[in-house]
Amino acid sequence: MKILVEYGHSRKVIELENEETLFTESLYNTLCIMMSVPFSSEETFFQYFDEDFKSWVDLELGTKILDKSKIKLSTLQPLEPLIGTDKVNFNCSTTSASSSCVSDDESDKASIELTVGSLDFGIDMTPPELCTGVIEDVPITKQETTEESNKMISVTEKAGSSDDNSWDIQLLCIKFSMTLQNKLENEEQLQWAQKHELLNHLGDFLYKKNKYPDMHMKRKIAKQLITKYPYLRERIGSGYDAWTAALNNKLKSLRMKDSSLSLKNAPLKRKESIPQKDVFKRPCKGELNFLPVIPSTEDETSLKRHKETMKKEMSKKGAKNLILIEKLMDKTYPQRRAYLTNKPLVKDLLQEYPALLLTEEISNEMTRLVNIDCTKKALKFPRLAKSITLLGRCYLKSVKSGPKHDKIKEILHRCDRNIRNSEVDRTEEQNKAGLQLLPLLLRENKEEFVSYTNSSNEFQKIAESVSTPIIIISESTCAIAAESQVVKEGDSVDSLIHLISMFYCVNIEYPRSCNCTFTYVQKEIFEITDNRKVPAKLVTFVTKVASQ
Each residue of 210-228: pLDDT tens digit? Predict the structure, then answer.
């Protein structure tokens, strides 16, 4: 026959040879040894589960043990497990003896099978957690999860090495309130107050052992909780992930309230040093031919000769051979991209390749880099500038005052005044107004994108005050300024082409305070796509402009 012996979390199946066996002192001692508990009649006692009364009854010597009886070993106080002896002989009658036990680091249950007869045999005293063999799982029922009358939960952990920063956790009893214990015993859903109490008990216990336990220890405690109360297991994941997270938060809360902790002892999280961001960007804005390889048909001598030919052609005061210039710029493109990795100044780049000052050639450079004809794409800007101007007028109707209101009102008033002059190009004035309104309507720094002056004589003064390329607008013309110099003068469309091309061809990052404005020019006007996320306010702005 077989009996089930339970002690704390340990449950072992023991097979007896006789169908009916009396509970004797010899069997008492054998069961104590198999459960790794010192046998002492004053501190340990056995109980069996009475099916009629549905309760545990004390098991006295001479009591008949029936087949498939459930026996529980209880102690009056926590006892140290038996460790240290190798073999102990007991006088038992048997015809064969076999024992197998196993421990699983992932479970606190084990099954041990023993045949008792009439011969002397040795019982291995190795602790169950160090044995190896075959596991016989025993299902846990609601009756079996009921502990002694003091209602406690046992938490055990195998001691680890000091290298693993682990520690010994002896058998500990955690007492719950009557309300919480009744809910756990009846498998009722816990309310917030009961969950809070349960976490307080577990957190306080773990905090006393180590104020900074590792995640493995927290998971172990959470797993032992659902092992004792299986109905608390979660439906998804490992079944105790949420309990582990709640226990982790509880420990954080305890550390915050602990005034004894000092900063030098706490494992603070430190931010890694962030290097200063380089203004020269990487290929992240849709560049298709960012750093090509110099062809084998060219060498340093031939490339130098091409550059000298281009400089000589660009120095001509009359008509220039644009076809020859474009051909030579194609040949020197790989060398030019490699030259940009040294982060040259804009003026040095233009001295080496003066052809970049030509609108046609800067557009060709963009075609080589992103495979887009910027000249054709820029033809849609006058239509967008008109819609942006109408959006600015709508803003003045909805907002009656403020610094932004005053700036928009001044730009539109200047545009209307110049349009009334018959000698001024109406479309050009709307383009200038659209360029000035764009960063204002996007709530960004206008001075990082465009600047206005009454006279073109002040272009150089404004250029000396900026670092990144910007557009300078006056009553009569527009210009591109970069690195304390005026690069090129022209109309609004040419200036816009040179502006976006300067950022791409010289590998300059957009100013952070005007990022949405440049992103709008890149993606909406020139249709250069990339994988970067579009800001939400820019999506809203594009929708409003399209509705005008």
Answer: 888 888 888 888 888 888 8
Could you say which of 320, 349, 377 is where a domain stops? 377
Phi, psi angles (nearest 5°) of residue 505: -75, -20
Are 180 and 34 in the same domain?
Answer: no
- Domain span at 89: 2-130
Q: Tell how many helices (H) and how many strands (E) occur in the chain.
A: 18, 17
In this predicted model, what pLDDT tens digit does every residue of 260-315 receive, in sequence order?
775 444 444 443 443 444 444 455 566 666 778 888 888 889 999 999 999 999 99
For residues 466, 468, 471, 474, the Cα torsion angle rounded to the nearest 10 degrees is 10
Helix, strand, coil % over all residues of the chain, rounded to 5:
45, 15, 40
Residue 408's nearest CA partner among 382, 439, 386, 448 is 439
pLDDT tens-place string over residues 164-173 = 333 333 334 5
Residue labelled with tokens 């890149």: 522
The alpha carbons of the chain give a radius of gyration, in whole angstroms, of 42
Question: Number of structural domains, the chain?
Answer: 4
Which whole number is the average pLDDT over 469-479?
A: 92
Question: The whole model's pTM is what?
Answer: 0.49
pLDDT per residue as tens digits for the range 171-207: 345 677 888 888 888 888 888 888 888 888 888 888 8
Q: Is the pLDDT of residue 394 over 90?
A: yes
- 77's tokens: 């106080």
Specify the DSSP element, H or E, that contains 199. helix 192-209
The amino acid present at 29, given as its one-letter code, is: N
HSE-CB of 65 using CA atoms within 13 angstroms? 30
Same domain flag for 337 and 390: no
Same domain, 511 and 406: yes
User: Of 476, 521, 520, nearest to 497 (Cα)?
Assistant: 521
* Whether residues 112 and 162 fall in one domain: no
HEC assignment per residue over 471-503 = EEECCCCEEEEECCEEEEEECHHHHHHHHHHHH
Tell me the average pLDDT of the chain: 76
Only one residue has tokens 């999506």, namely 539
Per-residue burial over 445-467, b = 16 or more CB atoms within 10 Å of its CB, e = otherwise: ebbbbbbbeeebeebeebbeebe
